[in-house]
Automatic annotation (TrEMBL):
Needed co-factor(s): pyridoxal 5'-phosphate
Function: Catalyzes the removal of elemental sulfur and selenium atoms from L-cysteine, L-cystine, L-selenocysteine, and L-selenocystine to produce L-alanine.
Enzyme Commission code: 2.8.1.7
Domain Aminotransferase class V residues, every copy: 24-392
Keywords assigned: Lyase, Pyridoxal phosphate, Transferase
Reaction equations catalysed: (sulfur carrier)-H + L-cysteine = (sulfur carrier)-SH + L-alanine
Organism of origin: Mesonia hippocampi
Family listed: Belongs to the class-V pyridoxal-phosphate-dependent aminotransferase family. Csd subfamily.
Protein name: Cysteine desulfurase
Transmembrane region(s): none
Alphabetized InterPro entries for the sequence: Aminotrans_V_dom, Aminotrans_V_PyrdxlP_BS, Cys_dSase_SufS, Cysteine_dSase, PyrdxlP-dep_Trfase, PyrdxlP-dep_Trfase_major, PyrdxlP-dep_Trfase_small
Taxonomic superkingdom: Bacteria
Amino acid sequence: MLDIAKIRADFPILSRKVNGHPLVYFDNAATSQTPTQVIDCIVNYYQHYNANIHRGVHTLSQEATDAYEYARDVICRHFNAKHREEIIFTSGTTHGINLVANGYVSLLNKGDEVIVSALEHHSNIVPWQMLCEKTGAKLKVIPMTDAGELDYAAYKNLVSENTKLVFVNHVSNALGTINPIKEIIELAHTYNAEVLIDGAQAAPHIQADVQALDVDYYVVSAHKMCGPTGVGVLYGKKASLEKLPPYQGGGEMIDQVTFEKTTYAGLPHKFEAGTPNICGGIAFGRAIEYLHEIGFDEIAQYEDELLQYATQELLKIEGLKIYGTAPEKTAVISFNIEGLHPYDIGTIVDKLGIAVRTGHHCAQPIMDYYKIPGTVRASFSFYNTKEEIDDLVKAVKRAKIMLA
Ligand SMILES: *Cc1c(COP(=O)(O)O)cnc(C)c1O
């Protein structure tokens, strides 16, 4: 059992008011809030040991380097990576995906195929389209079902000897569907195709074990798991990362530089050109430790209670339809009310202090499938409460009356 009152006290932002009402923050799928433990870690860095890493012999630089590399170890253990150099710091999920897509430009030929799913965030679609344009490879799409799940039977028919790479998300940010990634990876591997999993939406709720999954690449953003914005991680199997060329050139990623020829540093530095988000990386490690202090199993169980309760209460509102009804879901509810525009609902509930997301959630293909312009999305975290869900239900009812 989680002590929610104690947990809420860790998040100073939760005690502010919005439009005269206590803030109810239900936009966790877009970014999560930051606990004092992580804020303190950031302040401590800038107050005591702000310095560039891996370069100076002076004390501050060594302290910053130690803290940054300690964070890499925390993240390595969290994902159960085999080697610490398989953890590449990035600016976030989007950066991680682009790094791999860019590397694949030199690995694909005309006639090769890559497979994406209809459930993806735009950041797991557009880089691959760019890759296909550059290489002449073909992009194939796993269709989705009415419940908002991947059509696994269709995937079985799509994957073939021509498939080089498959990329799907672990959890859909628009619908909350948890995808059967282990099966997806296994099948791709029987054809020697690599798999990249976009873990941005899963990471705050599910502790992925990259070795058990046997996944080739797994990408996340810190800001969805109680860390700061502008930092994330690309996990890649050592052999996979070694065959990818560097993404950006610059300092930190080299071994020897002459004008005739430059040789590159080994992993992970080959992919970490320039001064990174040092403080962000350190704070990301602290955020993961914080989540472990609470416990991933406890988080998943409590969030599921919130999901079940909110689903049941929202469905009592006449004309309300929930999109994404897969049995395996994280705590995300995408909904619309017949005859009303999601934007109008979002605006009214904000007047009552409640933050929800409205729109296509960077997943236009899903909206096209349902033939809707967008949805209202309420996404819950372990610091939310059933009372807050009651507030949302009341606010949505009020919006319905006002907009009728
Ligand atoms: C948030 C999100 C992204 C993008 O993450 P950034 O931090 O903006 O790079 C990609 N995929 C999914 C599933 C997401 O939820």
